Structures are given as structure tokens and as C-alpha cells.
TrEMBL record:
Organism the protein comes from: Pseudoduganella umbonata
Highest classification ranks of the organism: Bacteria, Pseudomonadati, Pseudomonadota, Betaproteobacteria, Burkholderiales
Cellular location(s): Cell membrane
Full protein: residues contained: 596 to 877 of 877
Name of the protein: EAL domain-containing protein
Domain EAL: 31-282
Length: 282
């Protein structure tokens, strides 16, 4: 626990170290209570998936969705993933939760196809401990087989920090997934420390511009420069590029002007239950 806290404090920058330690103490009891509850969340059917559309900026079409997990807590109501995913990661419960997410997302993608809707991509977030699990590749294959979903519709989202910890190991695992025909994207791009040299050795099909660079896009010359640089980098490396957290038409217009391929954000839709995706696609 102390290690995980230190690791995260470091990730947040040295200045936040004290702040983080304080937060930890203040919420330790709360944290333990949540962790305890999380143990039952999968078995007691308290997890839900919402889906957020990904839109092609050239055609305006929804070409995929991202699965985002929610915890319907019996007493606390909806718990956000920013709160419980780190706890699940810390305690190792992320492996079971991640497997549930993967299986449910694959089943949902297949249900939409069975309903006769135009097939779309399904993106699933994968956290470090899940990625490190030696059974990951088998679990992904099993989820696809069980759902009867063709691997070409599945994409896994990993973060920069995850793949940069051990580049060779990450390359090997990603190549295995690539061989299975599963696409990989880098989430929250620009917030970690990517080695640009390493980036080109990963079989990645898409970079996601982190929403922190999109938020002030209309006003910040720095964020405009960063967004343009990421778009250009993606294209130079033959990858697609998507912006997350697009909330205004102004932001979208900048992205279109800079040649960004795709977007995701409240401007088009927040994450919604599966029925609403069905209505959008129909
Ligand atoms: P993420 O993968 O980067 O997902 C994007 C987050 O931005 C989501 O928050 C989404 O609801 C939110 N978002 C989307 N559009 C907008 C917008 O226009 N403005 C703003 N301000 N926010 C927007 P959410 O659903 O709370 O998820 C937070 C994070 O939790 C995710 O970040 C991801 O890292 C993690 N997460 C969510 N579901 C899963 C999961 O099934 N497995 C794992 N391992 N992590 C997950
Ligand atoms: Mg994501
Ligand atoms: Mg993201
Ligand atoms: Mg994020």
C-alpha cells in the first residue's frame, strides 16, 4: 500500500506528495470499506457498463464506442471509476473486474450485431495489473470466443505509462494481441513520458489526445501546439488520432482544422446505456 501510494504520489509530481498522504489518511477507513464492497461487486452483479460513442470527424458517423465501467453500490449509489479502479488496481481485484468488463463488452458488441445494427468497434480500457497478467491474451481470446465476436471489432486502450515501464515486454504482448487481430490504442496521450523512439516499435493503431489538452483548445496557444504536434506525430507514424473530452463546437472546429481524425466527448454524447447506442445506430 505504501509503495502504491508513493508511486502515485510520484506520478502526481513531488509537490503533491504531502497533499496525497493527507488524503490517504483522511479516507483510509472509507477506502477499506470500498475495497471490501468491491470484493462482492462482480458476484453480486453491481457493475454496469456505459458506452461512449467515437465519431469520425470526416463523416460524422459513429464508428465505435468505449466501454466505461460504473459501480452501482447498494448504499452509495453510482461510484465513479476514478474512485474504485485505483483501489481495484491496488488490491488486485482489477483482474476479476477487468475480465467481467471484457466479457460483457464483447457480448454487447455481438448483441448489437445480432440486432442488425451496423457493426462498430468496441474499446476496452486495460490497466497495468491486467496487462501484466500472463493470462491476458488467453482471457481476451476466451471473451471473444464466448461472445462469438470477431476480434477485428475489439480494441484495447492502454496508457503510455503502462507500456513505457518495460518496453520489450509490452511490445511482445502487444504483438501477440496484434497477431490475434486486436487493435491497440494509447489513452491519455501526452500526459505520460513516452519515448518517441519506443513509440514506433509498438503495434498501435490509434493515439488518444488527452482531454487536458482539449479543454482550453480554443484559448491556449500551448494546447493548440500540443494538439497539432500529437496529430502530426500520429499521422507520421501511420496511426489514427482521436481527441477525448470534446465539449464545444469551437474545440471540434480546431480539431477538424488541424486534421484530427476522430473525436469523443460530451459535445456528441456522454457515456450512455446500451439502449441509447442502439437508438443512435438505428
Ligand atoms: P479514460 O479511459 O480516459 O476515459 C475517459 C473519461 O472521460 C471517462 O470518464 C469519460 O466519461 C470522460 N469523458 C468523456 N467525454 C468527456 C467530456 O467531454 N468531458 C469530460 N470532462 N469528460 C469526458 P470515466 O467514465 O469516469 O472513466 C474515468 C477513467 O476510469 C477512464 O479514463 C479509465 O482510465 C478508467 N476506466 C473506466 N472504465 C474502465 C474499465 O472498464 N477498466 C479500466 N481498467 N479502467 C476503466
Ligand atoms: Mg479510455
Ligand atoms: Mg482517456
Ligand atoms: Mg483519462
Amino acid at each position: 500500500n505504501a509503495d502504491a501510494a508513493m508511486y502515485r504520489a510520484k506520478e502526481m509530481g513531488k509537490n503533491n506528495c504531502q497533499f496525497y498522504a493527507h488524503e490517504m489518511n483522511a479516507s483510509l477507513e472509507e477506502k477499506l470499506a470500498l475495497m471490501e464492497g468491491l470484493r462482492r461487486a462482480v458476484d453480486e452483479n453491481q457493475l454496469r457498463l456505459l458506452y461512449q460513442p467515437k465519431v469520425d470527424l470526416a463523416t460524422g458517423r459513429v464508428f465505435g464506442v468505449e466501454a466505461l465501467v460504473r459501480w452501482q453500490h447498494p448504499e452509495r449509489g453510482m461510484v465513479r471509476p476514478d474512485v474504485f479502479i485505483p483501489l481495484a488496481e491496488e488490491s488486485g481485484m482489477i483482474v476479476a473486474i477487468g475480465e467481467w468488463v471484457l466479457r460483457e463488452a464483447c457480448r454487447q458488441a455481438r448483441r448489437w450485431q445480432d440486432a442488425g445494427l451496423p457493426p462498430i468497434g468496441m474499446s476496452v480500457n486495460v490497466s497495468p495489473r491486467q496487462f501484466d497478467d500472463p493470462r491476458l491474451v488467453k482471457r481476451v481470446a476466451a471473451a471473444l470466443a464466448e461472445a462469438g465476436l470477431d476480434a477485428r471489432w475489439l480494441e484495447l486502450e492502454v496508457t503510455e505509462s503502462l507500456i513505457m515501464r518495460d518496453v520489450q515486454q509490452a511490445v511482445d504482448k502487444m504483438r501477440e494481441l496484434e497477431t490475434m487481430n486486436i487493435a491497440l490504442s494509447i489513452d491519455d496521450f501526452g500526459t505520460g513520458y513516452s519515448s518517441l523512439a519506443a513509440l514506433k516499435s509498438f503495434p498501435i493503431s490509434r493515439l488518444k489526445i488527452d482531454k487536458s489538452f482539449v479543454r482550453d483548445l480554443a484559448h491556449s496557444a500551448d494546447d493548440q501546439a500540443i494538439a497539432r504536434a500529437i496529430i502530426s506525430l500520429s499521422h507520421q507514424l501511420q496511426m489514427r488520432v482521436i481527441a477525448e473530452g470534446v465539449e464545444t463546437e469551437q474545440q471540434r472546429d480546431f480539431l477538424v482544422q488541424y486534421g484530427c481524425d476522430e473525436m469523443q466527448g460530451y459535445l456528441f454524447s456522454k457515456p450512455v446505456p446500451p439502449e441509447e447506442i442502439e437508438a443512435m445506430l438505428a
